[in-house]
Amino acid sequence: MPESILARVEACFRQAETFFERRFARPQVSLQLRGQKAGVAHPTENLLRFNAQLYRENREDFLRQTVAHEVAHLVAHQLFGSGIRPHGEEWRKIMEGVYGLPAKRCHDYAVQRRRAASYLYRCQCPDGEFPFTAQRHSLVLRGRRYLCRRCRAVLEFSGERRPQ
């Protein structure tokens, strides 16, 4: 775990404690998040998960904005409980009033999309060819069935895979 992330998490909590004049429970912090999300807060588990790749590629903004964004979720939960909206008024006021940062819901980091192969499925229609993701293909292998919306036939795997 990079010390800079842990230090920023701690700094955000101390800033909130000074502002609200109360103590907040510190979370477990993980760098195991993958995909397009930069960070995720799990308030009921008091857990923060961050994307190590996006941290490495966007270090300065990540530490300033993303870490504060996720800590604000935990602070809002500890202050107001679980009945609040994730990016609602309480969270926005913490971002803007406590941290002095814009209450942006999403990051704008460049994210490399994974190139996934598609599994071709067919029906009885003349142009009935449907590319399935690996995830959907595995659901079919476990018994899930998909129907063509036009002819209502069960889509069958053609045996072909196409790289995208």
Describe this structure as you would to a colleague.
Residues 7-158 form the SprT-like domain. There is one protein chain. This protein has helices spanning 3-20, 52-57, 59-80, 89-98, 134-141; strands spanning 28-30, 39-42, 47-50, 118-122, 129-132, 156-162. A three-stranded mixed sheet has the order 1-3-2. The chain has a three-stranded antiparallel sheet with strand order 5-4-6. It folds into two domains: 3-98, Zincin-like, CATH 3.30.2010.10; 118-162, no CATH class. It starts with a helix and ends with a strand. Helix 1 (3-20) packs across helix 3. The protein has five helices and six strands. The chain is elongated, with a radius of gyration of 22 Å. It is of the alpha+beta class and 164 residues long. A hairpin with a 6-residue loop joins strand 4 (118-122) and strand 5 (129-132).
Task: Provide the CATH architecture of the largest domain.
Answer: 2-Layer Sandwich
Q: Report the top-level CATH class of the largest domain.
A: Alpha Beta
Task: Please give the number of β-strands.
Answer: 6
In one word, what is the shape?
A: elongated
Proportion of beta-strand residues: 15-25%
Structural class designation: alpha+beta
What is the count of distinct domains? 2
CATH superfamily annotation of the largest domain: Metalloproteases ("zincins"), catalytic domain
